[in-house]
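Kindly inspect the following:
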Amino acid sequence: MSVPGLWAAVAAVAVVIIDALVRRAHRWAWEASLGGSRRARLPPGDMGWPVVGAMWAFLWAFKSGNPDSFIGSFIRRFGRTGVYMTFMFSKPTVLVATPEACKRVLMDDDSFLEGWPRATVALIGRKSFLTLPCEEHRRLRKLTAAPINGFDALTTYLGFIDRTVVATLRGWSDAGEIEFLTELRRMTFKIIVQIFLTAADDATTLALESSYTDLNYGMRAMAINLPGFAFHRAFKARKKLVSVLQGVLNERRARKRLPRSSVDMMDRLIDAEDEHGRRLDDEEIIDILVMYLNAGHESSGHICMWATVYLQKHPEIFAKAKAEQEEIMRSIPSSQMGLSLRDFRRMEYLSQVIDETLRLVNISYVSFREATKDVFVNATRAIGYLIPKGWNVQLWYRSVHMDPEVYRDSKEFNPSRWEGYTPRAGTFLPFGLGTRFCPGNDLAKLEISVFLHHFLLGYKLTRTNPNCRIRYLPHPRPVDNCLAKITRV
């Protein structure tokens, strides 16, 4: 071997040894305080290097186009235990990737609090549903249930959603080639802003949209509040977003006693009152609206796009879904203007299409908790694995939804798998589980259903780049934002 080759070999060995020593020291630093008996009960895993831990591997897996390789690397190295130890978002973390373990964590409010990364909490708000303790969370959910998912509220929202979808689809069909996802996000943003603020003018909507776009890109970033970092730009955007919403809220409170021609979500949140006469304060209302702005706009737009793409790729599924919508249209009285909630409840097969899209796309691929005490989670062994008090827990919904042992042919789009099937707790988690179940799920499915109803009845999608590469952060989407033509048929 030549001298340069020898030095290269020595350097490679040195790198391997240093890497192993640093990883072992980092792991020891977090395990030392647990004591021997608790340390022996920890799940298998790898803490990685200090500060970064598994973040590089996580980002590489998602940005390389193979997101399942992240959990796959733990399965390959440590076996199919379903529970793994690592270090992410600056904290020791236990990854949970089986239905049983997810159910255990999500249903145990006494042992687990929300544990979202600091960046997410700072951007959504400390008084949103993300961070509240159990009692306050229950109070807030009870107060906001009717304004968000109540029958009267959904009936009011449905009319605007229906009219907006009809007008938007007509506009797209005349526009030629469009970025389908971009336009869908604009449509769903317009809908959610009007649901929040019926009288919002174009300037207010534009200010909200501009600020929200920057905020969204910082949701999964490291909480580094320095110029040049995504979180810094997102945090500035949140301040602008809060300023706009506070201005509208001040105006609403000032004219509270005046007659109102229509009532929107902000009005309903202002009027909400619990059994003790307690109302929501400004910070609670604003943080709730920011949270719904994220969930109600971003997720709905992406699921509308993917459901449309899947339907177009599977003509037999498209035909079955369309036939259901045609039957619903035939049953609507001529005196009825637009869709009703009764019509929405009859969209059984379309609901299966949406559920299958939610399972396969995995918009919410992970959620976060923090252990408030030592907890043992049973996975593949009877005694269970220890989740130490104060450690974070990441629930990998994506791994559950894509597990072939849970869903046969899990990579196939098959809405009929939901026919007559009720998934057992922990196996279907697009909206979470337990008391922290997403409070806007009915509104989201209503919006998606109305869009697909009108698309199925009168339009088709022709993609410019049907084999376009997929980007997975912050949400799965084609890199060309689904460049396509929408054609009336």
The chain has a mean pLDDT of 87. The two ends are 71 Å apart (CA to CA). The CA atoms of residues 257 and 271 lie 11 Å apart. The chain has one domain: 89-488.
